[in-house]
């Protein structure tokens, strides 16, 4: 029979640092991962390269993804993919530059059109002011001419009345010879209308 003290004693030797062999195996297996490390941040992915660790202490169930047996197939694929990314990046930069140039040219054309329209607007405004000024002058002349026409119509009407009155006087004086004294008096009186 075993004593109770021997049962409580660990059959494993004590390890420095407090790690057991299975803990340290898991710890080393993290650093021996064969998968590339990739960032999903989207910033400057063309400069990042996959990280492969070939420390030589692979576990028994692990197979290396890239063997250094002389076949450059995966490396060529990676370099071809990197080249495609680089070309696409250069193409995107060129496309963005052309787009900026087109926008800049379009803005410059719009500015030129705006300046031309401002000049045309200024010319049309000046013409409108000139037309309005001349229109006011013509209106004032028209008002003056109408008032003069009214005055001339009144004078013409007065002249007609005077002529009619004189014709009536002549007819009356020729019909009545005894009124010759009154006609000579009327002929001597000056006209009241000037």
Automatic annotation (TrEMBL):
Name used for this protein in its record: BZIP domain-containing protein
Q: Name one GO cellular component term.
A: nucleus
State where composition is biased (Basic and acidic residues). Answer: 74-84
InterPro entries per record: bZIP, bZIP_plant_GBF1, bZIP_sf
Query: Keyword annotations for this protein?
Result: DNA-binding, Nucleus, Transcription, Transcription regulation
Q: According to its UniProt record, where is this protein located?
A: Nucleus
Q: In which residue ranges is the amino acid composition biased (Polar residues)?
A: 26-58
Q: Which GO terms describe its molecular function?
A: DNA-binding transcription factor activity; protein heterodimerization activity; transcription cis-regulatory region binding
Start and end of every BZIP domain?
A: 82-132
Listed PROSITE patterns? BZIP, BZIP_BASIC
Region called Disordered, residue ranges: 26-103
The UniProt entry, under Gene3D superfamilies, shows: 1.20.5.170
Q: Where is the signal peptide?
A: none
Q: Which domain of life is it from?
A: Eukaryota
- Could you tell me the Gene Ontology terms of the biological process aspect for this record? positive regulation of DNA-templated transcription
